[in-house]
Amino acid sequence: MRRFMDEDFMLYNDTAKRLYHRYAQTLPIFDYHCHLSAREIYENRPAENIAQLWLGGDHYKWRAMRANGISEERITGSASDYEKFEAYAETLPYAAGNPLYHWSHLELQRYFHIDKVLGPSTCREIWEEANAAIQSGGFTPRRLIMSSNVYGMCTTEDPADSLEYHRKLAEEGFPVKVLPAMRPDSALEIEKKPWRDYMRKLGSVSGVEIRSFQDLKNALEIRMDAFDASGCVAADHGFERFMWAPAPEAAAEEIFRRAIEGEDLGQEEVDAYKSALMVWLGREYSRRKWAMELHMGPVRSRNTRMVACVGEATGFDSIGDHPLAVPLAAYMDELEKTRQLPKTILFSINNRDNMVLATMAGNFQDSSVPSKIQMGTAWWFQDHRDGMEEQMKNLANEGLLGRFIGMLTDSRSFLSYPRHEYFRRILCNLVGNWVEMGEFPEDEDILKKMISDISFYNAKAYFDV
């Protein structure tokens, strides 16, 4: 019997062990999609205890605790930090097979050098040992990022963000690249009540009074120039339902006028506005050589009673099942007609869509960038071993696994980087198994390049950083 989470954790053959330890283990990380705060990185305040590092804002852990019958007071409420940590320790023994079990123990091992298994009987001991390590220093955001061997990251920012802290980090010479990725969802969500207020906010930041669709494009162009100046290499979009309803510019203008004056819109009008804006944005991304990330499929904030109590983005989201293939293909084709389809990364939260995305990518490749259209890594509810293996097998079946840009954290935690290790171990085991089964050659040069590229170099080249 193997020891729990030893140095060969998740590596089940000799080739996998060699690939991971020789080639993947020590490579830097380029985390091209995360939700870390540039302000927190700049201000660099240390955490007070492990509960603050682990449980603040982590809806993955919150969902598990709710499933264990923990009261909300001990999850997001007024309970003490220790009581919340204790509640998580009570939950973890029931989480066999959940990636949280592995991630949590990887973080204890890598950052705190704690090999103990977390549960009710070890909770107090691990709490004290971890907090002693925190008090001894080294647990500031910058130190955690640097000790994790992070080369660079793209943080997710609204177009109205000032980007003040990205500039300050660059001016100070922080050695890790902290780049903004623009996420203009608020500009697209014309059907939502805050949209008109957001138009005023965006107008104020850009210096453009936004009274028309053209004004909006002018304001966004000004903000994209500012993002460009701060090193932006990507734009990110989140869609519950990907839409396609092409409309002429005059129709988009009329829809905008009605919305800005407070009129209600029908679904067809909402889709027409979003389609027109997405086409314009895609062309702008292409002109700037940015990558476009399309995250599709989650249904958000479905427990309205609990969301009213504890707020949005607190763990009440799930997988959606809207049809994707036809509208996505039409949108990408519209941009490709004028050779203005940017580098594009396709993510779906529903593994049902894996083969749709794997085959869709093949429709729009060209010679400008190797695997210009990427099938994104297993995302959110899929970023466990089964999800990662399925995504990579689908990509290998229909495209070029060796050109894959690999893992991201999609996280708000400064302790989330072992997720890259988790991914790399799964990758090496998958490829190692193919080699040992005689399905791929035992050519060390080819294997070294493949593992190294997927772990780091492909993403670095793709985003040109």
Description:
The protein has 465 residues and is α/β, with parallel strands linked by helices. 51% of the residues lie in helices and 10% in strands. A four-stranded parallel sheet has the order 4-5-8-9, with helices on one face. A three-stranded parallel sheet has the order 1-2-3. α1 crosses α19, α1 (14-24) packs across α20 and α17 packs parallel to α18 (385-398). 43% of the residues are buried.
Topology of helices and strands:
Elements: H1 14-24, E1 29-34, H2 38-43, H3 50-55, H4 59-67, H5 81-91, H6 99-112, H7 123-135, H8 141-147, E2 150-157, H9 164-172, E3 177-182, H10 185-188, H11 195-206, H12 213-229, E4 234-239, H13 249-260, H14 267-288, E5 291-296, E6 298-299, H15 304-310, E7 318-319, H16 325-337, E8 343-348, H17 354-363, E9 373-375, H18 385-398, H19 418-436, H20 444-462
Parallel strand pairs: 1-2, 2-3, 4-5, 5-8, 8-9
Antiparallel strand pairs: 6-7
Helix pairs in contact: 1-19, 1-20, 11-12, 13-14, 17-18, 18-19
Name its key features.
single chain, 465 residues, alpha/beta, four-stranded parallel β-sheet, three-stranded parallel β-sheet, 20 helices, 51% helix
Uncertain spans, ≥5 residues at pLDDT below 50?
A: none
Biggest β-sheet: strands ordered side by side in the sheet:
4-5-8-9
Question: From the alpha-carbon coordinates, what is the Rg to the nearest angstrom?
Answer: 23 Å
Helical residues, percent: 40-55%
> How many distinct helices?
20
What letter string, H or E per element, gives the SSE order?
HEHHHHHHHEHEHHHEHHEEHEHEHEHHH
Largest sheet: 4 strands, parallel
| Class from secondary-structure proportions | alpha/beta
Mean pLDDT, all residues: 97
